[in-house]
Amino acid sequence: MTSSWPAYRRYVHKDGGVLWDALRADFGDHDVPVVIDNQERKTMRLEEAIDLITETKHAVYIKDWHLVRSARTHSRDSHFFLPYSTPALFADDWMNNVTTLGNPSATYPNASDAWLASCHDAYDQDDFRFCYAGTTGTITPLHRDVCMYCDTNADTSYSWSTNIAGRKRWRFVAPQDASLLRRFPDQRTSELASTYDDMERRYANHELGAYKDGFSGWPGWAEVRSRVHVVYQEPGQTIFVPSNWYHEVENLTDCLSLNHNWCNAYNLRSMYESMEHEVDDVTAALEDVRDMLQSQPANQCPWQAEFVAIVQDVVREDAGWAWDGFWRMVYHNVVHPPCDAMFRPPDVRPLIRELLSRFLLRAETPWLASSSTTSWQRVADWLHVSPVG
């Protein structure tokens, strides 16, 4: 699947390693997030990060680099270099359908990628498409994927990851075991287990157990450690990560990979419920702020509107978006579908009507700022004028 990708042809050495000099030549002036020695986080130019990789012994991991978005921004006045094309299996992608222009019907697999590459209004839009490039031993600790907070009863986004160069080890934990990864299993917001190796070291040292019994916490590790699924990913292979599966990824060699976080109508209900959980948790955590606002003298802005705005800002910072982004995504994808009908489920209007009805009953909805109101109102208007199938 990857052999025809420009990224594979251009950035893989004949020995299978990463061609760092080619990456530097194409994207050296791009600003990228970097983790050094699995601890220090900073933003630097890609050429500086590659210098660290090739000239020092530091463990360097370029993570969460929005390669496609960054490449578009840097190539406004020149031919856009499209490093890869989204596999047709993952074409119905609501999170990365970032242009306002109408998508023509796809006449061949991956047509939407070529179309997006020419859409100038997509240059500055955020997305959930990432490039990862790291040295041997760099790691992404146990986590669930970007976009939504959730518990064991609600799903996050999906993800897929294609290894362009190098070899990775993935460790997966099933959704039903999520509570066993928490320091305090009954608390949804409790601290999560770090890396598998670190937890195993602490387990061997008899540090883990119920906090009330004098241990550090994570009493569930003794049970979950035997149910960790291990997968080795070779060059050219693609891994699909289902919603809500925890996973840890370790680079066993120098690696280059391309990743998408994505969603569509199949997990929209659970993503909506995840947003509800996030908003409710942040609202509860900011109870002291609410009390302070209520006690202040009345002004032109009701305290409820001010408090809801604060909650939405925190949710947006934590989860990557809030109610305005969620409803904007829904509206955009029903009006401008990301792919041809053959790759999409049947009519989604009954589902969206159900979710909107629930949303309109929430306490914060009347106090949301105009951007959120506009987003869900557009969805309501679309439901009203469109016939129900």
TrEMBL record:
One cellular-component annotation, GO: nucleus
Residue spans making up a coiled coil are none
One Pfam family linked to the record = JmjC
Q: Which GO terms describe its molecular function?
A: 2-oxoglutarate-dependent dioxygenase activity; sequence-specific DNA binding
- Provide the JmjC domain boundaries: 71-279
Its GO biological process annotations read:
positive regulation of translational termination
The name under which this protein is listed is JmjC domain-containing protein 1
The organism named in the record is Malassezia restricta (strain ATCC 96810 / NBRC 103918 / CBS 7877)
